[in-house]
Amino acid sequence: MAKITVMFGSNVESEHTLEKDEARIGRSMECDIVVDNLGISRHHLSIVKDPAGWVAVDGGSNNGTFINGKKISRHLLKEGDRIVLGKHSLVFDANGFASATKTGKKTAASMGGEMTMFVDQSALAKAMAEGGKRMVISLDQGGREVLIQLTRDETTVGNSADIPAKGFLVKPVQARIIKTTNGHRVRAEGGWRSVKVNGGKISGERDLRAGDVVTIAGARLTYKQA
User: pTM score > 0.85 for this model?
Assistant: First the structure.
């Protein structure tokens, strides 16, 4: 037997013994291992029993499957391999068994929407390969936290932007989060709706620090380390 441990950051979410010849992994409740993350496809990948061992096979996912910092389509798993899916990771134990207290599927009520959040794949792969400090935007969507990777040189915020900020008189792009040498800054794009950082209205640009909260209409965006 072998085991997959689902991690969120440094926290163990669940453990799963690989008892079948194929274990499907993704956001859909139909999967054998369900991972609640908008950056993960409904059927993201499978772990398949092969004569050579267990193999991770990407299922044509939107944002890709990464192992040891490299994007893969098929990979023979080795002891301790870490499969990275956004901020979730799956740790492979070639001889493990799941603890009875850490198994189980999520309920449908706990899952996110049907749409997968797209990530700039080349920028994400580069960031994962380089390691180091990565910053994200934490967005509150109906009481659940969604982490948005800041992988682009510029990420837009607004009524029809990379990061949604819905509301009356909110422009299609109300603000931009711009990558700098030392981090990021936020730029207000004017209009009737104000852009606030930690409760104070800004005009023009302002450097962001870890823990800063940007608000636009009802949207609350926290700038934090991944």
Answer: no
